[in-house]
Amino acid sequence: MSVGLHKKKLKLLLAGLILTLPLSLFAEGNLPIVPKAKAKATAEYGCVNPVADMRKNHMEYLLHQRDQTMHKGIRTKKYSLAKCIECHVTPDKNGKYAEYGDDDFFCSSCHNYAAVSIDCFQCHNDKPQSAYSSLSSNKQSLPEGHEKFASNDTLPSGDAE
Asked: Taking the mean position of all CA atoms in its chain, how far away is CA 43?
């Protein structure tokens, strides 16, 4: 065999290895483990929209909800971040809630993997309302200034579902 033929075979072998490398990166165990929602859901409709749609477009829905609320004063609960947290953030077997940034936190499990930075939890709670209610019932103190978030009265009455 000629040297040129060896080089060609070597290049093909290297190209094949390089092309299969990304497949090995996505092997089982390398993908984020996304916690299941605690809300009753079907396989097709995990929450307010089909699962595939929510995975692809959830940020658009949240941004639209934010714009409707902040700029137009329209408050609905369908794409409310608080409602997402209520279903998707659940306590572990010890009753402890993961915090935003932890790989066990519902949003962070994918956002950390995809290197996507979000700023929702600079202002919003990263735990469901029930987590704060249980703190109050245990007579533990809430962080200073968070007492008003321990009740379910945070939205004005008459809000649309």
From this structure: 18
Among 60, 81, 62, CA closest to 154: 81
Q: Tokens 């077997």 — which residue?
A: 93
In residues, how long is the chain?
Answer: 161
Query: For the chain, which residues make up each domain, given as ranges?
Result: 1-31, 36-150
Kindly report whether the global pTM for this prediction surpasses the value 0.70: no
Q: Give how far the C-alpha of residue 45 lies from the chain's centroid of Cα atoms, to the nearest Å.
A: 16
DSSP letters along 71-107, please?
A: HH---BSTT-HHHHHHHH----TTSPPP-TTSTTSHH
Burial 88-124 (b: 16+ CB within 10 A, else e): bbbeeeeeebbebeeeebbbbbbbeeeeeeeebbeee
CA distance 81 to 63: 10
Coil, helix or strand at residue 19:
helix
Q: What is the pLDDT of residues 81-119, one digit of tens each?
A: 988 898 888 888 999 999 999 988 989 888 888 888 999
